[in-house]
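Tutorial handout. Part one gives the primary structure; part two gives the three-dimensional structure as C-alpha cells.
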Amino acid sequence: MAAPTMKAIRLHEYGGPETLRYDEVPRPKPGPGEALVRTHAVGVNPPDWYLRGGMTSMPGKPDTTVTLPVIPGTDVSGVVAAVAPDVGGFTVGDEVYGLLRFPGFDGHAYAEYVTAPAADLAHKPPGIDHVQAAGAPMSALTAWQFLIDVGHDHPSPFQEAPHRPTPLGPGTTVLVNGAAGGVGHFAVQLAKRKGARVIAVASGAHESFLRDLGADEFIDYTRARPEDLVHDLDLVLDTVGGPHSARFLPTLKRGGALFQVLPGAYDPEEAAKLGVTVSSAQVRSSCTQLAELGRLFDTGALRVAIDSTFPLADARAAHERAARGHIRGKIVLTVPQG
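Part two.
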C-alpha cells in the first residue's frame, strides 16, 4: 500500500510570492510528544515571507534547520487526527490551535496535515471558527507577551535585560502604532481591557474599526504626525519599527517605555536623558497563554479581525496581499476538507 500523501505549499527556492508551489508530499507522522493535526486554516505571518525571502535562522539562533524544499507556516487551527502514545490532554477529534515550534522555521503549517508538539497546542475556543483561530496565535501571543505577561525566562536576542511589561490600568495611557494590523488590533483590545486609555495610530480607513475595538483616540498618520499631538504617555507599543521609531521617545513621560515589536532605531543616550525605557522581546509558543487567550476569544472579550482569506493552493495571492500592506487584522489560508 502506498504511503498516504497530502497537499502542501513548499518553497523550492527563495524569492517572491511566485516561489510558493502547491505540491503533493508525504503525510507526516507524529513523533514523541506530538499530535497530527488535520489542518482547517493557517495564519499568514511575517516570518513566512522572511523565510520565503531567504531568512533561514532566527535572531539568537545562528544555526538553521531549514533545507529546501520547505513548507512554511507556524499558525494552525484544525482537528487532531492522531497522537503519539506519550501525549496526554488531547484525543482524536479534538479541535486545536497553536503557534508551532516558534521561534524557528520548523512549523510547516502550510499543509493539509501538520505534526505539532502537544506543548504548542491548546483547545480551540468553541466561540470562534477555525479561520479566526488560525489568525490568532502568533499575533495574539505577541501582544500578550509584550503587554501582559512574558511567560518565560528565555534570554532575549535583542537586549541583555529581560523584557518586562508595563503595568496597565486606569490612569495609564498607551499609544499603539500600527494599530490595525495583526499585533496592533490585539494590543488595542488588551490594553483597553486592562483599563488603560488607548490611542490608536493607523491610516484613516481604519478609524471606525479601531474605535469599535475600544480605542479612545485615533490618529491618522497620513494627516498628522503622532509625535506632534501626544505627550506624557506611559507606553508606546510600536508594531512598525524601522528608522522612525525613535520619534516616539519624546512623547513618553519620565519612567515611560517604548516597546518595539519590530527592530527600530533609537539613541540609547537620548532614552537615558529622557528617563524612558526601550524594550523588545521575541514571541514564543505557549499553550498556557493560548488557553488563557482562548477564554477571552470564547466569550467575545477579545476579537480576531480577518483581513482576507485565500485557499491554501492560492498562498501566492495571500503573500501578494500581504506585500500591499495596510492589512486590517489577519490574512488566513483555508484548507479544503474532503
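Part three, for discussion. The longest strand covers residues 34-44. The radius of gyration is 20 Å.
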